[in-house]
Amino acid sequence: MFFEGSEKKVEVVMTSNSDSLRSFDKGFWEKLVSLSNAEILSSIHNEQCDAYILSESSLFVWHDRFLMLTCGNSTLVNSIIGFLDAVNLDDIQSVKYQRHKEYHAHLQVSRFTDDAEKLKTVLNGKAYRVGHLDSHHHYVFHYQKSNEIKVSAVTELLMYHLSGEVANYLRSPNQTKEAINRLLKLDAWFSDFMIGEHLFKPFGYSVNGIAGDKYFTFHITPQESGSYLSFETNINLAEQQPRLLIGLLDIFKPGCWDVIQTNANEIVSSFEDTLCIGQCDLQIGQGNNIIFKQYQQPWHQQLTAVEL
Amino acid sequence: MFFEGSEKKVEVVMTSNSDSLRSFDKGFWEKLVSLSNAEILSSIHNEQCDAYILSESSLFVWHDRFLMLTCGNSTLVNSIIGFLDAVNLDDIQSVKYQRHKEYHAHLQVSRFTDDAEKLKTVLNGKAYRVGHLDSHHHYVFHYQKSNEIKVSAVTELLMYHLSGEVANYLRSPNQTKEAINRLLKLDAWFSDFMIGEHLFKPFGYSVNGIAGDKYFTFHITPQESGSYLSFETNINLAEQQPRLLIGLLDIFKPGCWDVIQTNANEIVSSFEDTLCIGQCDLQIGQGNNIIFKQYQQPWHQQLTAVEL
After folding, report:
1. Contact residues on chain A for B97, CB-CB shorter than 8 A
2. pTM, 2 dp
3. Chain B window 50-109: which residues touch A at a Cβ cutoff of 8 Å?
4. Average pLDDT over residues A55-75
5. What is the 3-state secondary structure (H, E, C) of chain B?
């Protein structure tokens, strides 16, 4: 079975004088999501945000921006192009499209460079690669009309090679949403958030949370062949949850992980007793920056051999 | 331009009562090499070994074994199958086929698992993967008839992200074989070896050396997009050249490197002031073992962003 963790995402921000994105009906978003070969499974709503669980990850829609994450061999770039075709290009303030290095690149229907070429036919943006081709690396396409509104401040934690009791539970049969919700300690970390979640068969769990204009989302791909958990939020972690990332590492015990912070206060200067094997501060223009950091547990150096 | 470093290799060992492989004429080896989409460029010979420089790496033929290394999108597995078809399978003592993780896997014409399937239709061998899919990893197929003769004792040093003056020279125009030979200090390390070498256009250098039944070979792919140097030898480094690997690291200043030792005395317990980010001792049966180690320079953690 082929399943790739949520490795593609886009944030589109509209100019301040454009119509609210929430005025588009559900059919509009269903069609947009279908362009990625995904579908809407459920949704939650508050006064500022609509959050959808997708068959391949998540979609968040605010008045002036939307964020879409997809996984597997989805074609997120087609949704972006579909959106740009449906609106007035002058109303686009910024587009930030990111892709992570895939475990199974040969099974993907497109490469990042293909995606960037498509986007460049519509938007005069720039494309970057951060990191070495022979290790974790990330791609970013960024377009911004002006520096009137910045790209959202977001923290991402991408954990690989999950281990320990929780990882074993996530790979076990008869798991429940309620138990995973408890293992994630969602009540403790995000007590005031409205929650939407989905358990996939045979494995996999997605959860969206919203409170006002704040969001978080987790996507868990527990399969041992390439176990992966992605988390991201626009909460100011430095002020409100400085222990959250450490807490998540303690739960999922990943062999290695990446932290990606866009326009965010740096909250993790160091994880104790771990190896920082990569870091980069990428200036993407218009006052926006993205900090990438890659970490590894010392015990992750012990490689296992797999008979194929 | 697509050029992948020498990432595939095979050693085939014949049983002690089979005919000498050196009784096959040059046409036999030319045809075998052509099955990998490569050709013979030059050769050197001594009383125990014929060593060929190929358009994609190297071929060494001894009385009872041959070693072939190929790079780029060569199809080494087809040469192996061609050889197995040309001889009596009962005369095959062992086949060890290795592939390294590719930078540009999508441009390769086959994957290791495809290759292993082909080999398994002829030989009852085992296939392994060592290392994580999201970092350097290596594949091994191994077949051995009996433990009468072991797989050769070999040390491999694979260097990535070459830096410094020598790396810059290797990427410069108007380079010469003579200068690269000097930079490698071949005269100092391998004073009693007969040398065959080739400079590729616009870049790239291969050298074979033989002395009695001992060999070494270097293949340099200097392009900045994925610079790579592979070295291997069956010299007993622990006894005869204990400082060789350290010396090569000092010349080429790679950001990271792998050391792979098959049935060899361990000569590198640690490289000082570097990070060991992966290690594995793989027992492939019949008393053979392969030790994999992955190292990184502390400065390699500073990632650069590339605008695409």
Report:
1. none
2. 0.83
3. 101, 103-106
4. 93
5. CCCCCCCEEEEEEECCCCCCHHHCCHHHHHHHHHCCCCCEEEEEECCCEEEEEECCEEEEEECCEEEEEECCCCCHHHHHHHHHHHCCHHHEEEEEEEEECCCCHHHCCCCHHHHHHHHHCCCCCEEEEECCCCCCCEEEEEEECCCCCCCCCEEEEEEECCCHHHHHHHCCCCCCHHHHHHHCCHHHHCCCCEEEEEECCCCCEEEEEEECCEEEEEEEECCCCCCEEEEEECCCHHHHCCCHHHHHHHHHCCCEEEEEEECCCCCCCCCCCCEEEEEEEEEEECCEEEEEEEEECHHHHECCEEEC
